[in-house]
Automatic annotation (TrEMBL):
<keyword id="KW-0833">Ubl conjugation pathway</keyword>
<feature type="transmembrane region" description="Helical">
    <location>
        <begin position="235"/>
        <end position="256"/>
    </location>
</feature>
<feature type="coiled-coil region">
    <location>
        <begin position="262"/>
        <end position="289"/>
    </location>
</feature>
<keyword id="KW-0479">Metal-binding</keyword>
<keyword id="KW-0472">Membrane</keyword>
<keyword id="KW-0862">Zinc</keyword>
<keyword id="KW-1000">Mitochondrion outer membrane</keyword>
<keyword id="KW-0812">Transmembrane</keyword>
<dbReference type="InterPro" id="IPR013083">
    <property type="entry name" value="Znf_RING/FYVE/PHD"/>
</dbReference>
<dbReference type="InterPro" id="IPR022170">
    <property type="entry name" value="MUL1-like"/>
</dbReference>
<protein>
    <recommendedName>
        <fullName>RING-type E3 ubiquitin transferase</fullName>
        <ecNumber>2.3.2.27</ecNumber>
    </recommendedName>
</protein>
<dbReference type="InterPro" id="IPR051652">
    <property type="entry name" value="MDM2_MDM4_MUL1"/>
</dbReference>
<keyword id="KW-0496">Mitochondrion</keyword>
<keyword id="KW-1133">Transmembrane helix</keyword>
<dbReference type="InterPro" id="IPR001841">
    <property type="entry name" value="Znf_RING"/>
</dbReference>
<feature type="domain" description="RING-type">
    <location>
        <begin position="308"/>
        <end position="345"/>
    </location>
</feature>
<dbReference type="Pfam" id="PF12483">
    <property type="entry name" value="GIDE"/>
</dbReference>
Amino acid sequence: MDGFPLSITEALCLGSSLALSGICYYLYRKSRTTVDKLDDAPHLIIDGNLKNILKVTPGACLQYAVIEGAVRPVGEPLTSHFQKEIVGVLQKFMLREHRLLWNSLSRTWMDSERVLHERVNAVPFVLVGSDETAVKVLCPLQASGVYMEMTHEKFHQVNYGLGDIVGQFLSGEKLKGQLEIEEMLKVGASLTGVGELIMDRDGSLNLRPPSNGSQYFLSITDFETLRGDQESNAVWWKVLATGFALAGVVVLLWVGRRYYRHLKIRSEREKERREFERLQAEALRARLAGTAPEALQDSADVQIENACVICLSQPRNCILLDCGHVCCCHNCYQALPQRRCPICRQNIRRVVPLYHV
Ligand SMILES: [Zn+2]
Ligand SMILES: [Zn+2]
């Protein structure tokens, strides 16, 4: 696209929409693969038969399987800090600070959040089925999915005095308060696990993160809900990828339209220049046929006196119509950014060569 300027905004819009579309498409493919793997994973019931299934499986290992069972601690369970009757096997405690920050651009107070403290406690646990068969869950914190329940949530609001309010307006920062959250995976909760199922030499069963790169899931919802969430993620990424790709196409069409118009103007100007040169040559031939050499000399002098108002170096050699001004040379006329007379700003409809007789 010789000489065709692609504006920075267009280049940025095109680049970012294509890049975002690519990222969203990659995430869509990833979510889609996860859903396909979930669909292919066998659903196994935790009972005495599970060991028999694993015994006949090569390596006593199923790379991706779905199991459901009730959570039971291997040793002493953890107790909630806030409700002593709640016991669990995983516990997450978080303290978040909420502030309002003055945004001088939008002239409003904006919410801002900061984690002050976060602590995770875990004890080993198993999933038990209908009989006493148990599957130990390894590395539960590496799993995706919702497997904790909120057991405590409290917002500690800050009370202000007059001095604090003055200070806040001076510093542009207001402390709203602190949010205290405790989440737990409770003992007895029904948990769906999707991962690698393996039987150790001693006959104990374990669920662990898959070694083939598949996603490890633990969820207190049932399998269908877990799969549905993954499916809707995939749909969202697909919608976003398509949206960004369409935005890229729109930018491309816009640039294409501009390029087409640029080419059209260029070819029109070329045509105009050739027509002008033809008329000029015709006029010169007529002059040579009808005038004496001295007269030609005179007219050349007149032309140099009447230099083009734009470049000041070429003689004025064209008449701009309809206004009729003779003010520039044809090269300068062609270089005008808009087809308007540089003297009176009237639209130029046609241009004809000027010749003296
Ligand atoms: Zn000129
Ligand atoms: Zn004019």
